[in-house]
Specification:
By secondary structure, this protein is mostly beta strands. The chain has a single domain, classed as Immunoglobulin-like, CATH 2.60.40.10. The protein is 13% helix and 46% strand. The strands form two sheets. Strands 1, 3, 4, 6, 9 and 10 form a six-stranded mixed beta sheet that branches. A hairpin with a 2-residue loop joins β9 and β10. It is elongated. It starts with a helix and ends with a strand.
């Protein structure tokens, strides 16, 4: 419980700092780091019917020559609109398949209204490259077309 609260607080602080402060490469430590900017991702869901559950694979990759750190606390928080329900709102390491080249989270949702529905999410995961490490933060848009 405490670890979960600390992780949520850390994710919130990291996201708030990233959105409020201008990007900078000046760091206190000697590890090489890249200039931070949130990565936007758009995921298209498979066809869905109103009232029926659909599973959406959210696949993410570290950019350039970076690799995903499976030992780093990964998290994804969904913010679904009222027209759709998600079986789970918060995903962690144990909910994801994490490999060095990519990660995958299966998101299960049920739409209750016809039309295009967009679920917003924030995804964070650790990346590393040689002697450097960083945190990747992505704003995810999951688009569901319900019939």
């Amino acid at each position: 419980m405490l670890r979960s609260m600390v992780l949520r607080f850390a994710l919130g602080v990291a996201l708030a700092a990233a959105l409020a402060a201008p990007p900078t490469t000046a760091r206190a430590d000697d590890l090489p780091r890249r200039v931070f900017k949130p990565t936007p991702m758009t995921i298209k869901a498979p066809p869905a019917k109103v009232g029926q559950r659909v599973t959406i694979p959210v696949v993410f990759r570290a950019w350039d020559r970076w690799s995903i750190r499976p030992d780093f606390p990964m998290g994804m928080r969904l913010f679904p609109p009222e027209s759709i329900t998600a079986e789970q709102l918060i995903y962690k390491n144990e909910d994801a398949l994490l490999e060095p080249d990519q990660g995958r989270i299966d998101v299960a949702v049920t739409p209750y209204q016809a039309g295009k529905i967009v679920i917003t999410a924030v995804l964070t995961f650790g990346v590393f490259k040689e002697h450097a490490q960083d945190i990747e933060i992505a704003k995810v848009s999951i688009e569901v077309d319900a019939e």
